[in-house]
Write a structure and sequence with these properties.
alpha+beta, globular, 4-stranded antiparallel β-sheet, about 180 residues
């Protein structure tokens, strides 16, 4: 299991089979050729995205010349703007042909407002996803050796057995989701 896919796995892992079926029925697959932008810095976004295949880059600056990160299969994109409804602070564009699953902000908000059990599972998964991203950012910035602050950054092999089992199940759910989406095409 790769370190990059864990964030989406945390989000999907706690969802029920019915939740995943709802996603399959409501979401759309979008294909991006290399260079196409998925998200524009400063422009509101209308969907939450899961990368099904390919490679995206997150860039900032007027010339989009500062790369912050690369996003690969299994990652979630647009989750921060989904949470706080503010426009994104970076542009996300395809480095190679990329397929994403787009869940409409309107559809997702409607489901969250009308299905409290789904909302609890979704927000729990999203909080785990964001926590994982924050820990990764702390590690990349080089603060993981500051023991006086007791920053608890775990590598995948350091997860508890329960978390490892959760991630294995989540990986199976992600694979099932992708397989059913492709069968729908």
């Amino acid at each position: 299991m790769t370190h990059k896919t864990e964030k989406a796995l945390f989000l999907l892992g706690g969802l029920s089979d019915d939740d995943l079926s709802w996603i399959i029925n409501k979401a759309k697959i979008e294909k991006l050729p290399p260079g196409e932008r998925l998200i524009y810095e400063g422009r509101p976004i209308n969907a939450l995205y899961f990368v099904l295949s390919g490679l995206l880059t997150v860039v900032i600056g007027s010339k989009e010349d500062r790369e912050l990160a690369q996003i690969t299969t299994g990652e979630v994109v647009g989750e921060v703007s989904f949470i706080d409804s503010r426009p994104p602070l970076a542009t996300v564009k395809a480095l190679e042909t990329t397929q994403v699953l787009a869940i409409s902000r309107f559809e997702l908000n409607s489901k969250l407002h009308h299905d409290s059990k789904f909302a609890a599972r979704f927000y729990h998964g999203l909080s785990l996803c964001l926590a994982s991203r924050m820990r990764g950012t702390i590690r990349r910035l080089g603060y993981d050796d500051l023991t006086e602050y007791e920053i608890d950054v775990l590598e995948p092999e350091e997860f508890s057995e329960q978390t490892k089992e959760f991630l294995v199940l989540a990986q199976a759910k992600f694979n099932w989701l992708v397989q059913n989406l492709r069968a729908r095409e």
